[in-house]
Amino acid sequence: MSEQQGIIQVTNLMKSYGEFEAVKGISFSVKKGELFAFLGTNGAGKSTTIDILCTLLKKSAGEVIIDGYKIGEGVGNNHIRKKIGVVFQESVLDERLTVFENILNRGQFYNLSKHQIQENYQFVSDYLKLDDIQNKKYGTLSGGQRRRADIARAIIHKPTILFLDEPTTGLDPQTRLFVWDAIKRLQEETNMTIFLTTHYMEEASVANQVVVIKEGRLVAEGTPNQLKEKYAFDSVHLEFKHTFDPEPWLKEKQLSYALKNSIYTVRVASTLEAYDILKKLEGQIQSFEVVKGSMDDVFINIIAEKGSVV
Ligand SMILES: Nc1ncnc2c1ncn2[C@@H]1O[C@H](COP(=O)(O)OP(=O)(O)OP(=O)(O)O)[C@@H](O)[C@H]1O
Question: Which residues form the ABC transporter domain (predicted)?
């Protein structure tokens, strides 16, 4: 496998559930060591795709190559399973066992020696800070503690690729930051490839590569910056004094705008252009806010089929 080819290569992947086509021929590639964000609305086909990439679900058509091995052919699936770790939306740990016992079991599943499991346990405990929960039964843990244990279990065999299906959904902001920090450290310090689905756009904004799918089709891909350039824009939100009607002025200046709840959202090429508008309309403005284009805009605009909101 060359660096160019990518550690994950998906070509024209399709999956049908009976008559229903959940994944309709998607192609993309993930480079080794990158943080890859796989985005889409609910029901877009993200979990279906992840389940296929993790060898848990059979594809209907197309080709998937992971770490040089084809899914569904020869020893491909066995090889792939040893190379990947998976954190599902739903937990798969045993509620009656402690965190340590759960992780130990998983290590034995991979035929790791006792010594190797101990060594790897230190490694995962360092990243997920397991000391305070390792002797607690999984069933008694809070949501955030469970997530730490889930990720620890998924990486006890030090996989090359870690699949994370919405790893931070439902966590409080502080726990979310902790889990996110552990994921980023794993990527940066161990060169683990991270394949992530998330509904949090601030997480996607630090990915190396982003792919967006909609109704089973790939609708956009690129780096966060490339996508922001294409689908997001800076804007200035303006509320005017009641005595002033801004529409003739905005039209004369050929500015693109939208009006909602008496707030005008005016699209600008840069925050400097916003400054220029504010200066020109000084005296007529009740309040204002200058807003930088974000990954949220990117997502909303892509999903709305490139329709811009102003
Ligand atoms: N076992 C199944 N049988 C029939 N349809 C299914 C099955 N699993 C998923 N689907 C359908 O396939 C589509 C894609 O589902 P999938 O769970 O892959 O979406 P998703 O992008 O992961 O959504 P979410 O963000 O809500 O997790 C949905 O319309 C879903 O209802």
Answer: 8-240
pLDDT band at 306 (very low <50, low <70, confident <90, very high): very low
Q: Are 121 and 96 members of one domain?
A: yes
Cα of 70 vs centre of ligand 1, distance in Å, is 24
43 CA from centroid of ligand 1 (Å): 5
Q: CB–CB of 234/268 below 8 Å?
A: yes
Task: Please check whether residues 153 and 20 belong to one and the same domain.
Answer: yes
- The CATH number assigned to the domain holding 97 equals 3.40.50.300
Q: Which of 207, 226, 245 is the last residue of a domain?
A: 226
CA of 16 to the centre of ligand 1 (A): 10
Asked if residue 87 is part of any domain, the answer here is yes
Q: Is the pLDDT of residue 309 over 60?
A: no
Q: What is the pTM of this model?
A: 0.86
Q: Which runs of E-coded beta strand occur in the chain?
A: 8-17, 20-30, 35-40, 61-66, 69-70, 84-87, 161-165, 193-197, 209-214, 217-222, 234-240, 257-260, 263-268, 285-291
Q: What residues form DSSP beta bridges with 42?
A: none
**Residue 115 maps to a domain:** yes
ipTM: 0.96
Which residue's CA is minimally distant from atom 9 of ligand 1?
48
Indicate whether 200 belongs to any domain: yes
